[in-house]
Every structure is written in structure tokens, then in C-alpha cells.
Amino acid sequence: MPGENLTRDEARERARVLSVHGYEVALDLRSATGPGPAPGAGPRTFRSTTTIRFACAEPGATTFADLLAPHVHSVTLNGVSLPVDRVFDGTRVLLADLAAENELTVDAACAYSRTGEGMHHFADPEDGEVYLYTQYEPADARRVFANFEQPDLKAPFTFRVTAPEAWTVLSNGAETGREPLGDGAATWTFAPTLPISTYITAVVAGPYHYVRDHYRRELPDGAALEIPLGALCRKGLARHFDADEIFLLTKQGLDFFHDHFGYPYPFGTYDQAFVPEYNLGAMENPGLVTFREEYVFRGRTTRAAYQGRANTLLHEMAHMWFGDLVTMEWWDDLWLKESFADFMGAFSLVEATRFDEGWIAFANRRKAWAYRADQLSSTHPITADIRDLQDAKLNFDGITYAKGASVLKQLVAYVGREAFLEGARRYFKRHAFGNTRLDDLLAVLAEVSGRDMGEWAKAWLQTAGVNTLTPAATYGADGRILELTVFQEAAQDSHPTLRPHRVAVGLYRRDEPGGPVVRYARAEVDVTGPSATVPELAGHEAPLFILVNDDDLTYCKARFDEASLAGLREGLGDVADPLARALCWSALWNLTRDGLLPAREFLDLVGRFAGAEDQVGVLQMVHSWARTALVHYSAPERRDAAGAALARTALGELRRAAPGGDLQLAWARFFAGCAASDADFQLLAGLLAGTARIEGLDVDQELRWTFLRPMAAHGHAGEAEIEAELARDDTASGHRHQVRCLAARPSAEIKERAWAEVVEADRLSNALVEATIDGFAQSSQRDLLAPYAPRYFDALTRVWSERTIEIAMSIVSGLYPSLGDPEPVLDATDAWLTAHADAPPALRRLVAEARDDTARALAARRRDS
Q1: Cα dihedral sign for 166, 172, 175, 178?
Q2: Which tens digits make up the pLDDT trace of 26-52?
Q3: Do 402 and 417 form a contact (C-beta atoms < 8 A)?
């Protein structure tokens, strides 16, 4: 990726001298259809013509515009044609001797993408139709049109798009005109946007299935806000598309944000496009939000999946205010949009939709992401130090999203709900269509709350690391609590900050033998240093267990004392409150990750109590943790027996689960992932063939692929069975499943072919790279994968230099030899890091993070032994 980076210093200097009046962008996408270029002829391209009008505060200055394009036809600055070979180097357009007012026109041939970056080109194998969409964050608009690619140079954008006349073509603004060209094509013109950043402009084009609806709201001044709504997906997914549910959630979200933000949605239309081969969950382009099409569920799925989709939809909607209306100045303050959207997504989900269990998923799933990220060597403050675009790309992480959202949840408790929302309202009005830093938000929060936000920000936003909170109780002769203390520690020596925590401490017991485990006492306490006593709980009877951070009020790792651990070993499955139960599972998992609880004990708890879990989202998270404990944290000499026991548990719970329910489906998927014996695979084969049956279990197409993949990985299904399954499901989704299953087969030849397709060649799309990597790395094939560890380290710098950052990140993280013997893998990783001290920081970060996970796995295995 040489020459593609942009540093913070360069961006600040450019923003100091430039202000942008507006863009006019004309894209001709007719080349998207028809045969592709001949082999070796270069990428498929489209015509991109951009005119930028901008001012320069220092006439005579020199700066640059950004553009990644294989060819530029012409560059014209203030009416003068510039020599392309002198001003364009493949990534930047040199602009010298600027006037006070300037007009730049760049006519280029830009490349369609197969990596999900820029203008992505997807040809549907089911019907041959072509679908296009753009994805830019943080800086890929320059792959589609010339621009000043940084968030603080906002401007209005006017798009004109030429494409096949039968297509649906959308952009951020409403369509204002469509001119047929007489050759089966037409040109769409869209209304100018309000001032926005380059990375949230968007175009979607293709024969999409498009459904329309409408939102109306009366405003306080008596006017009515009218928002045309649209939802679209590929034609091949139309029969699965539940647009009514999408529109219901959209209207509920718009109502919620209008009720609380005091600033009407400003961007006109609101389309939501579910697009193929998408790298992210979704992207908040104003007026045209894009989502990964896996959110169009092809088969039966669980309530947790629908909840996750709803959360994502509301997360992106919150961005219309936090991120699009008001945007961070530079990626240092990425949290100003992502943390807020993550928090507001969960907040609105619980208060405005049917998914009132949203905070349970937040505590169990989102925080798990944050806890892992915050204990890596790459952990960083929520307000990060982002030196350049590669840093920015890697900081879309669990710190920026989930830890930031957790801290905001605490902030609401700290300043008060109404003060927080009033602060948001003032923030939007004060900075609408502008750019902000941390201090701008803290200023309005201080105004409305009357609190000093500086110390809070220093503790929670400007330091890294997660604290642990552990209870300790002493008891009198009568068995009652004499004193209960909460101790605070730093989880890492490198990040020793002890933060102020407002926590609830709950005492849990059975009120009668064999009855549910319930909370019988609760108290809140401020833990501001190494320890704090909880006097309100003195005198209570001894509990079965003590839960620190009950109700999930703060961001911390909760620990248990030994008596509480013993109580959970006896009563975890009977804890009545689902949030308390989820917090217990999370705490137990953190103990396992930290090597304090042997993996065998965690797996024993799963075997004894996971069947009692009735929150399917929590259950699926416990399943994921159990797989990690088995594959990475179990002592090698225990692994086979532990795997067989886990498969028995899964099958037993599958048979016991209520027919046709979410829990049954979750256990079916888990059983497939755990299957280890010939009898297990015979059952999976029978379920596929229809010769075996489990009451209520509908083995639809998605579940068929779920069953087939482990069969392929263990040698119980070969190419013929995989091709037969593809014949049943000859769709884009089916092709991805096929590629995954083919790469999963236990053969040295197959592994070599998969490695070559990903590492040595560059023909696969982003989605097929991901599927191939996923199939390649099978935990049951450690011996087959061992030879690739040295090849991985040999290929790293070449891959990073030759591939786009999205593909390079997938390869560096996905092919790291995490299934190898940890000690030699750690030695090889350390040797590479030592020898490549001058490698790009983003590459070193990915390798170091993988090393962190391997070191943790080694410690956990030793504990399990």
C-alpha cells in the first residue's frame, strides 16, 4: 500500500489552507456490465469526472487532491490543463500556485473493486446480474472520484450517474432528474447534499429489489417532516427480504431519536441497501445506509440474530446525528461517532423496539469484545493517537466501539439521563454540519450537568486498560456478613490507572432448597481507589455468591471470591435474573481467559448449566466461549476427551430443547461445530439425507451448509457431496459456503491450493478470500497446518505491500498460525517483530495482537494442565 497513506499532520496542514465550496461528481457505470477485460489487460474501469470548487487562504500555496486510479485522462486547474504525468503519481494530484478561489476538474478512469473498497463490483452467479455499491470509510472515496479525503473538509456533493436504464440508482440526495440516453442507458441526477465528509458519500447501482415506504412526523413548529423510506437487496434475496420489519424498526428509531435529540433528521430520504460481499456490518452514509446482505436471513435464525440486526440498524441511524451531522475533526476522535452510535443503538433498541433484552446482549457480547481489546498490547485510550490512515483503519475496534459505549452508559448515570440528552441537543445545534474534538462535547456536558468533566475524561477517555473489581467478605460466628469490601486492581501493569466506579453489589441465595437463586440484597458504592467498603450489606446472611457490578453499571472485569465461585459451581443454572446470569457467565469467561479458572472447569460449567440458559443470545456467546476454551485453552492431553464431552452435551441439549425453538437451533449449530465421533457425523449425514430426524428441527439450506462444513473438515464429505449441495443452492451465498467447505477438507493438496489462492494470487473477491481462510484453518488439522507457520512470516511484508489494506488485514489476522504449538509460534512471532522493527505500524500491531492471543492461550493451557 505504498503512497496511499495520509498523515494527521498532512491533513491538518491542508485543512489550514483550504475550505471546500462543493463537488460535482459524474460517474459513468455502463462498463460494469458485459465481458471483463482480457487477462493481463488491467482492471475493469469506469469514467469518473470530478469538479471541486474550493478556496485557498494562502494564494500561491501548494497542496494536493487524493485519487487512486489506474489512469487519469486530464487535470484542469483554474482553466489551465496540467500535464498529467507531472501532477499525478497514482495516489495524489499535485496542485501548485493556488488562487484565492479555485476550480479543479479531474477526468479519470477509476477501477471497480473486488475487495469491498471503493466501487465494489459483484456479478451474481445465480443470474449473471451485476450489482454495484460504494464503501469508503476511512478513506476510499478517492478510489471513485478525486477529492480532499479527510473528515474536516466537508462540502455539498452533487452526483450524476450514468448506468443501464433498467437499474435502480441511488445516492445520498434525492433523485431530481433522469435522462434516457437512447442506448439502453440513462443519467440520474441527485440533489446536492448538505455539507458532509467524503467518506460518507455513497452510490448504489444495479437491478436491486427495491421496496418503498414513508415516514411522517409532526414537528413542534406545526410543520410536518416527510421522509421517503426505501429498502433494497439483490433480486436473488427478494423472497427472503422482510422489508416490513426493516421499516417498522426504522420508524421506531426515527421516532426515538426525534423525541430525544431535538434536531429533525436533516438528510431528506432514508434508503437502506443490503449489499453483497460487504466488509463491515453497515455504514452510515446519510440518506443511503449500506448493510451486509447476511442481514437478509435466508433460513430460520434466532431472536438474537434479529436483535443484532435491529441494533445495527439503530446504530447507523444514530450516526445521522453523531457522525454525519456533527463529525470528528480527525480520526483521533473516532469515538465521538462510534462510541455514541454503539451506546445509542442499545439505548434505543431497549426503549423503542420489541428487543427489551438489549442490555443483556450488550453486557454479554459487546463488552466481551471490549475486554479482549483492552488487554491487548495495542490497547489505547478511547480518544486515540491516530497518526495516519492505517492507524485509523485498525482503530475500528472493541475500544472505540464497545468500551466507548460502556463508558457512555456510565456517563449517563454520572450526569443524569436528561442532562446527557440535553447536552446532545446543544451539541447538535451548536456544531451542525461542522467538525468537533473531545473538548467540544465535554463543554456542553459540563454546561448542562454542572459537573467538572475534565477529571472524568482523564480517567475514562484518556487512559487505557480495564480494572478488576473483587469482593471480599468476613463473617461472624452467626454466619452473617461483618464487612464486605470491593477491591480494585489494574488488569495490566502497563496501564495502572484506578478509575472511579459507581457499582452495585448484589447478594444472591436460594430462598428454599432447590428453588431459584435470587438477589436478596443490593447496595451501590463508589469505588474510587484500591478499595471501598459496602456498609449497607453488613449484617446480611451469607450469600450463595456475591456479584460485583450487578446490573452492569460500570466497565470492569468482575471477579468472585472463593466462596462465590463455589456457590456458582452449585447454582449458576438456577440464577433467576437473566442479566445477573449473563454477568456471571461473562465473569467466569474472563477468569478462564486470564488463566485463573482452568478451561476444564469452564467447560464443566458449560456442560452442567448451559442447558438452563433461556436467553439465546447469551447461550450462543457461551457456545462461542466454549469452543475457544476447547480449541485454544485446553491442555493438549485433555483436548480430545473434552471435545467428546462437549459434543455429548450439545447433542443431549439438542434432543431436550423445545421443538422448533431458538434454543434448539442454537444447540444444533453448536453440535455441528463440536461433532467429533463417527456417530456424530453419521447423525449429521442422516439429518442431511432425511433419514434421521429431530422433532421440530427444520434442516433448511443454511443449516445444511452448517452441517456439511464439519463433515468436510473431518473427511466425512468430499468434493462430490459439496458440489451436490451447491447444485441445491446455486446462489452467491451457496458459492461462498462451497468455497469454505472445499478449503476445509483434510488434505495437504487442498491446503496448498487454498494457501496459493489467498497468498500467492490476487483473483478472489474479499468474500471468497474470507471464506477460503475460514475453511483453511481447521482446529482438527493442526498437523496439516504446521508447515505454513514459517511461510506465513515469510509472506507478511509482501502481502502488506501488494494488497489493499482490507485484504491484507484479512490475510495477516486470518492465517496467523494460532492453531500451532504456542511456544514455537511465539518464538517465531518475536523473531519477526524483532527483525521487522521498521515494518508499517499497522502491520506490526496486527501481528502483535495475534501474539497476545497466543501467549494467553499458552498460559491458559498451562493452567489447565
Answers
A1: negative
A2: 999 999 998 888 777 789 999 999 999
A3: no
Percent of the chain past pLDDT 70, that is, above it, reads 100
Contacts of 154 (CB under 8 A, 6+ apart): 20, 195, 196, 197, 327, 433, 434, 435
Note if the pTM is more than 0.85: yes
Structural contact between residues 25 and 145, judged by C-beta atoms closer than 8 angstroms: yes
Taking CA atoms, 424 is separated from 335, 438, 686, 706, 835, in Å, by 15, 13, 57, 44, 48
Chain centroid to CA 405: how far?
A: 13
Distance CA 105, CA 53 (A): 9
Distance, in Å, from the CA atom of 347 to the CA atom of 360, rounded to the nearest integer, reads 12
Longest dimension (CA), the chain: 94
Q: Which of 322, 270, 274, 326 is nearest to 295 (CA)?
A: 274
| Average pLDDT of the chain to the nearest whole number | 96
List pLDDT tens digits, range 217-227: 998 888 899 99
Question: Cα(444)–Cα(422) distance, rounded to whole angstroms?
Answer: 9
> 650: burial class by Cβ within 10 Å (0-12, 13-18, 19+)?
buried
In angstroms, the Cα distances linking 22 to 1, 67, 194, 286 are: 29, 17, 10, 17
User: Interior CA angle at 322 toward 215 and 451, to 5°?
Assistant: 125
Q: Which residues are catalytic?
A: 316
Amino acid present at 266: P
- Cis-peptide, bond into residue 138, ω within 30° of zero: yes
- How does DSSP assign 600-659, residue by residue? HHHHHHHHHHGGG---HHHHHHHHHHHHHIIIIIS-HHHHHHHHHHHHHHHHHHHHHSPT
Question: Which residues have a Cβ under 8 Å from the Cβ of 65 and sit 6 or more positions away?
Answer: 52, 92, 93, 95, 104, 106, 146, 147, 148
Would you give the distance in Å from CA 141 to the centre of its chain? 20
Nearest-angstrom CA–CA distance, 115 and 122: 10
Mean pLDDT on 580-601: 98
Amino acid at 607: G
HSE, CB side, 13 Å, CA atoms: give it for residue 376: 24
In this structure, the number of other CB atoms found within 10 A of the CB of residue 478 comes to 9
> For residue 485, what are the CA distances in angstroms to 245, 473, 522, 544, 770?
48, 6, 14, 17, 48
DSSP three-state, residue 435: strand
Using the structure block, give the residue that is written with the C-alpha cell 487477462.
39
Q: Which of 816, 7, 798, 845 is nearest to 394 (CA)?
A: 845
How many Cα atoms within 13 Å fall on the side-chain side of residue 543?
31
CA–CA distances in Å: residue 262 to residues 195, 265, 338, 428, 675: 20, 10, 20, 9, 53
H-helix or E-strand containing 218? strand 209-218
The span from the CA of 707 to the CA of 700, in Å, is: 11
Sign of CA dihedral 230, 233, 239, 242: negative
128, 155 in Cβ contact below 8 A?
no
The amino acid that residue 705 corresponds to is: W
Length of the chain counted residue by residue: 865
Q: Which residues pair with 519 in a beta bridge?
A: 508
